[in-house]
Amino acid sequence: MSFPSRDAVITGAGVVSPIGVGTDELWAALGGPGAFARPPARDGVPVPDQASTFSGDFDAESHTKTRSIRRASGLARMAVVAAEEAVGSSGLPEDAYFRDETAVVLATAFGSSKDYLEYQEGLRRRGLAGASGLLFSESVWNAASGHVSKALGARGASLTVVGGEESGLGTLVTARDRIRLEAATAVVAGGVEQYGDLLAASLLQSGLIASDRDGWRRDGPAPFAEGAAVLLVEEARQAKARGARVLARILGAARARYPRTREAAQRALEAALAEARVAATDVDLLVGSGAGRAQQLPELAAFLAARVGPVETQLQSLLGEAGAAGGGAVGAPGSGGEARPGWVAWPKVTTGEAFAASSALAAVVAARALADGVVPATPGGDDLETAGLRCPGRPRAAAISTAAIIATTGAGSAVAVILGAPEPA
Question: pTM of the predicted model, to two decimals?
Answer without folding.
Answer: 0.86
